[in-house]
Amino acid sequence: MATVKRQVLVVPKQQQGQKLKQLRLPHPRTGNLGSYYVDIENEVVLEAATVDMKGKRSWLGSDWVMGDGSVSVLVPIDPLFLYLGLLTKISKAGNDDEWKYVDISVLQLETYDQMDAFSINRLFSMIGVQVRALNELCEAKEISDSMSVVRIDSAKVLSWLKRKCSAERFPTAMEGIISSKAGDKELVEQAKTREMALLVSEYLPTYWTHRLFEEFGGFASVQNSDQILTKRVQAIQFDSPDSYAMGVPTPQTLAMANKVDKPKTAKEKQMEKAAKRSKPITSFFQKKNSSGTKDTKQ
Fold it and tell me: Which of 27, 42, 86, 89, by CA, is between 20 and 30 Å from 208?
């Protein structure tokens, strides 16, 4: 009898009560298979971000106990990132900006590494998402009345990505990263755009990350602003010293590097000297020998 693995999921309100299908799809940036859930009816894709408790927590239900205390938080993701990752993988022609035409309706997707045909077909079954993806990312070529092929259109892709990086989309929760005293308003706007580009690049193949930053000129003016970068290091909360921050040192690392021992106060020095002169309480008692009498000094 097959056992069903119990999971604890945190689901957005809009998808509560909906039938969610779990898919295994390649992550757009790494290509590694990740866990996604789709609401086919409403054409919504959710990414599962798992908080691993590493055996330190358990779940206790009304009539069940689960030893694994991990929890998966389902967060919405624009499915066009998944399409871009897939199309980049299967339609690259070799040269930097050359793409071959592909017919995504008949691709034997199981022949490609790290792709699950069932999950890909489920993703492609959301027709509205597919139409939007092909319009935003591709150019189409009609072969016959019943067949058309598509290929990546770099200009369309970069235009779509630049809209994703608009400073107007900058989350209010990240306002502390940008110093309002950094200089002129334009520099602050560029800094916000850079932060958005860093976030977006978490879901891009390396090729498109490079192309996107080239479009913005590498954010040279932001890179040269010490005030912007210092504010960023002070404000960002990191989960670990090797977090995502693309070469920006973490606050923990800086704190350790800059740590200076404070000079001891007079009282602390006095207590330290007294501790050195003190004797253990056992030294005030004479030891007994094997006959039971106390030893005496000769």
Answer: 42
The pTM for the full model equals 0.70
Rounded CA-CA distance 99/87 in Å is: 9
Handedness of CA 85, 86, 89, 95 (dihedral sign): negative
Give residue-wise pLDDT tens across range 53-81.
666 777 777 777 777 777 888 899 999 99
Q: Which candidate, 129, 200, 134, places its Cα nearest to that of 166?
A: 200
What lies within 8 Å, CB to CB, of 282 at 6+ separation is: none
> Tens digit of pLDDT for each residue in 177-190?
776 555 577 888 88
Three-state secondary structure call for residue 141: strand
Q: What is the pLDDT of residue 246?
A: 39
Distance CA 143, CA 140 (A): 10
Residue written as token pair 């871009």 = 84
Around Cβ 110, how many Cβ atoms within 10 Å? 10
Q: Bridge-partner residues for 47, per DSSP?
A: 36, 75
Q: Angle at the Cα of 85 (from 175 to 5), degrees rounded to 5?
A: 85
Q: What is the pLDDT of residues 274-283, one digit of tens each?
A: 666 666 555 5
In contact, 294 and 286? CB cutoff 8 Å? yes
Element (H, E) at 80: helix 79-91
pLDDT for res 280: 59
Q: Identify which of 172, 69, 88 has the alpha carbon closest to the alpha carbon of residue 104.
A: 88
- Cα gap 38→45, rounded to integer Å: 5
Contacts of 261 (CB under 8 A, 6+ apart): none
